Amino acid sequence: MNEKSKMNKRFKNFLVVWFGQFVSVLGSGISSFGLSLWIYMMTKSATTFAMTFLVQILPGILFAPFAGSLADRKQRKYIIMGTDSLDALLKVVLVVLLLTKKIEVWMVYPLTFLSQTLGTFQNPAFNATIPLLVDKEDVPRANGFMQLIRAIQNMLAPLIAGALFPFIGLAGLFIIDFITFFVAIFTILPQKITQEIEEVPSSNFTKTIVDDLKVAVNVLKEKQGFIQLIVVFSILNFIANIGMVLIGPLVMSNFDTKIYGLINSISGIAMVLGGFISGIIPSKEHKVRLIFLSLIICSIGMIIMGINYHWIVIAVGFFFFMLPTPYANGTLGSLLQLKIETKMLGRVGALVDCLMKIITPIAIIFAGFLADNVFNPLLVENGALSNTFVAKIFGVGKGRGIGLLFTICGILLFAICAYMLFDKNVNQLEEQNPDVLND
Fold it and tell me: For residue 50, what pLDDT band results from cuts at 50, 70 and 90?
């Protein structure tokens, strides 16, 4: 078998695993979208709606060091399978609560927290496995395909959930999610994944975690420009999440759940296009510059979303916001996988994920508070800005304060990305840090 045939076989094996993850993630997206609709319909509160995002993000901050160490110390394949299995059991619990009519809004938070905790342990294991499944030259393409999963989820999940919800209810959506888990298990189970595992230096697990965290920090310090890049990304995540957690309230202030599902599906189409671009035409050089150029497009999308209350304008803005997202995320993932030693990728990847999310909970908490108590009151009838030029631009009424908040976030996002395009330290990151994977 020649080298090209081996390469093709390895990428085909990756696509098998990719398909399993695609089906599983789509199932999770269907149940998650149905759950978000259920919560907002039950509470009608932007703050309560935002709290669901908070419990989704917290596990990635709290447990990232543990997840990273586990991904490098244990067989990643079995971590992926184990977390999938436990998450499936959680779905069974939710179905039972729904069918017996025992569920209350507060119960969703701990169950969601547990589900996201399992995802926190799975993500670094899976991301660190990608370079083991494909050849070096296929790493950017593989990451593009992984971004495509989320893109298709965003496109199809709202449509499927919205169409099925009236007939099978939230319990039925969770049953679908449970079934899809088997596809993920049976596609990764037969794969042979060769992984170099470091021995645990101490019998004290807590000490091992602390030591691993120190190692991951030192690795990032040694890689020129990485710390600065991660800090900037965490700030961008903070700004974007203030707006993103309020998309539901922004839309449903004036429209029904069908329109909300349609807008989410349109954004999903944008992510699919972005995922195809990332997978078919991966970035081979100038990755950092391309990341910030793509994020400028995201910022323009946020500005558009806030300008006008009409759902078509919001949908167009959301489209432009989500279009470059797979490309930016996939390119950042490729940078890590190409520049960080594979045996340490779990620890470093988990730390990076934690650092980029660490101030996001503040954004999520502020988002609901700012919407309900600051910005929405500004642009209602007789509000502080209802007779100013701001009202002439954004309008007066339900959700227009959230629109103003979106536009402010978009302008801040634009300014930071434009500045980073001229930062030499970050833009020379690729040249200053040699690749660690062999050709």
Answer: low
